[in-house]
Amino acid sequence: MLEAGGRRNPRRNHVLGRAYAHPPVLAPQYAAAVRIDLHTHSRASDGTQTPGDLVRAGAAAGLDVLAITDHDTAAGWPEAETAAPEAGVELVRGMEISTRHDGRAVHLLAYLPDPTYPPLVEELTKILDGRSSRLPAMLERLREVGVDIHADDVHRVAGGTAATGRPHVADALVDLGVVRDRTEAFARYLNPGRPAHAQRYAASLETMIRVVGEAGGVSVIAHPWGRHGGQERPDESTIAALAATGLAGIEVDHQDHDAGARDRLRAIARNLGLVVTGSSDHHGTGKVDHELGVNTTAPDEYHRLLELAAASSRRSGRPTPAVGS
Ligand SMILES: [Zn+2]
Ligand SMILES: [Zn+2]
Fold this sequence. Notes:
Layout: H1 28-31, E1 36-40, H2 51-60, E2 65-71, H3 77-87, E3 90-101, E4 104-111, H4 118-144, H5 151-158, H6 166-175, H7 182-190, E5 203-204, H8 205-214, E6 218-221, H9 236-244, E7 249-253, H10 259-272, E8 275-278, H11 299-316
Parallel strand pairs: 1-2, 2-3, 3-5, 6-7, 7-8
Antiparallel strand pairs: 3-4, 4-6
Helix pairs in contact: 2-3, 5-6, 6-7
């Protein structure tokens, strides 16, 4: 069971990407060497690498386990799964779902759900549709308050980017001489509560935790105390209520959390019996300071997560389908 480097090879005990009931217990001297990164993005959402390149980069970075967690989609799974055995990486199939809780945006990591479960498909479709329909909605609201602005005006200042958002609308308003600068554009028109603000669809956090469970997966709240633009952080009682609805874990070790935040979140997880994860939130070159493996998940926490996913799958009767099935 030992590799040339004296390291136990965890892959021998695993079926790729699949949760199982009796994970191996790693002796501590080997456990320390196993590197697990449970949050990464590919070009299937806003990362810069193809899913295959992401997996190979994980192997090159010395990772034993890598989860692909693109925003609101499982589209990267098949390619990542094809690349994983050859790269020698255990792949965990996941996604990062856009949800809302008390008016606040919350990212929810879902691991090993059946992506064909109809209520999950329905929610993901609404989220993805909401993203592309936001620009037309903003422009329509601006025209309703008398600003003559059209999609062409936005595309002209956006310089051909695929993801046109509020900053580009703000630039177009400057370009048209409606406002002096971006700040004024947001203050007068684009911020929440202003006439042209269009809220994107996001599922409710509790609903999504339940749907992920019904789909045979497990939920981990992503970077709960991350940069949320001054929004309120979920405290222990809020997280306790989420745990009661089926939340399995908290992403504690994340670049958005300083040492103090990590200590406090770890204590909350311990109090509530939640799994503690750590991960890079890697986006290729799309995000600096998020190199693969910059934070990792402890093997025993990872195995607990797989146990919970296996239990969820047994309960729901929904295993994560193998690619091609
Ligand atoms: Zn996120
Ligand atoms: Zn992310």
